[in-house]
Amino acid sequence: MAPRKIIIDTDPGQDDAVAILLALASPEDITVLGITAVAGNVPLPLTQRNTRIVCELAGRPDMMVFAGCDAPMQRALVTAEHVHGKTGLDGPQMADPTMPLQDQHGVDFIIETLRREPSGTVTLCPIGPLTNIATAFEKAPDIIPRIHEIVLMGGAYFTVGNITPTAEFNIYVDPEAAKIVFGARVPLTVMPLDVTHQALTTRPRIDAFRAMGTKVGDMVAAWTDFFERFDMEKYGSEGAPLHDPCTIAYLIEPQLFKGRHVNIEIETQSELTMGMTVTDWWRVTDRPKNATFMNEIDAAGFYALLAGRLARL
Ligand code: RIB
Ligand code: CA
Question: pTM (2 decimals)?
Answer without folding.
Answer: 0.97
